[in-house]
Amino acid sequence: MILDYISSSSRAPLLPARTGRASPGRMSGLNGARMADHIGVRASGTLTAAHRTGHSLVVTRLQGLLAPGTETPPLKQEAAYSIVVQVRPLQQHAFTVGGRQIHAGAVPADAVSVVSLADCPRSVMSGPLDAVQFYVPHALVDTVARENDVPPPSHLAWPRADRDPVAAGLVALLLPGLAEPDPARAMFVEHTAMAFLAHALDRYGGGGAATARAVRSGLSPWQERRAQEILHARFATALTIAEVAQACRLSPSYFAAAFRRSTGQSPHRYLSDLRITEAKRLMRETALPLAEVALLCGFGDQSYFTRAFSQAVGASPGQWRRTHREGGIPH
């Protein structure tokens, strides 16, 4: 995913609904300024996380004061989900989807609305609105599901007035980035937005079992390829597993577990094997001292090299070298 900050926001308090139309954002669909205009409020911050396939997740903070009985106009059907998390309570919301009313009444803070824009949702709302919308194309949901070896959900759904503390917590992490875009925080914001999408797939798609399969599937192909590229290129340096995990956009603990599921080895063992293989080559082809071999292979010092090599091979580096030079069969 590539994060792109579309607009910053002011720190002004809630304002009455705007009557003019804002210039459209760079992505089509009911998101950003278009979503704000559809409801009759302002978009106080918008960011876009673009997937390598070209699909994008758009996050928008919506703020404004809705007059009693404010009704959203009819909209053109879209193959996308609109997931809205309430930052503050909403006094009144009559929510109709596909001609059927699914909620009428107040909406508490941290409640979530999940609806497909293909189902022609309509709303009548009143009072101050402060919420964050996630615009997620159906194609992106399906793509992310397949990348994680999970069957794409048939639909996403959630009771309108039910709180979701996990979603609210992720939104709270995104609010500073929506308020003051900072390229230095782009990776963190991007990961948080994608964590929200993963949560939505699990929680709103009824995907508990599917998520378990996704966890068991290990790294995605690009993550496994990237991890192995880094390990092979930098095994002779003071490389840490945390650095490799960061390159794969995962936490160190999750990366370690997923790497083991994908390769059958822990990242530490995989790295150690690369170093030992190179050490064998140097001992077989050169007369370098063992201390220098240890440093060239990333072991740090000869003592650690000796322990790691002996544990893996069953012989000390010196014994292995002598056996090889004496015509024995190397391990």
Q: Any overview of this molecule?
A:
This protein has 331 residues and is of the alpha+beta class. It folds into 3 domains: 2-215, Sandwich (Jelly Rolls); 218-264; 269-325, Orthogonal Bundle (Arc Repressor Mutant, subunit A). 42% of the residues lie in helices and 23% in strands. It has helices spanning 32-39, 138-147, 165-179, 186-203, 208-216, 221-234, 241-247, 252-263, 267-285, 290-296, 302-313, 317-325, and strands at 2-7, 42-50, 56-71, 80-86, 90-97, 100-107, 112-116, 122-137. Strands 1, 2, 3, 4, 5, 6, 7 and 8 form an 8-stranded antiparallel sheet that branches. A hairpin with a 2-residue loop joins strand 5 (90-97) and strand 6 (100-107). Helix 3 (165-179) packs antiparallel against helix 4 (186-203) and helix 10 (290-296) crosses helix 11 (302-313). The longest helix is centred in the last third of the chain and has 19 residues, at 267-285. It is elongated and about 90 Å long. The two termini are 43 Å apart.
How are helices and strands ordered from N to C?
EHEEEEEEEHHHHHHHHHHH
- Provide the structure class: alpha+beta
Q: Sheet bearing the most strands, described?
A: 8 strands, antiparallel
Mean pLDDT: 83
User: What percentage of residues falls in helices of 4 or more residues?
Assistant: 40-55%
Q: How many separate domains make up the residues?
A: 3
Q: CATH topology of the largest domain, what is it called?
A: Jelly Rolls
General form:
elongated
Radius of gyration: 27 Å
How large is the share of residues in beta strands? 15-25%
Rounded to the nearest angstrom, the distance between the terminal CA atoms is 43 Å
Please report the number of helical segments. 12
The CATH architecture of the largest domain would be Sandwich
Instruction: Output the CATH homologous superfamily of the largest domain.
Output: Jelly Rolls
Low-confidence runs of at least 5 consecutive residues? 1-26, 207-216, 327-331
How many strands appear in the DSSP assignment? Answer: 8
Given this structure, which CATH class of the largest domain is correct? Answer: Mainly Beta
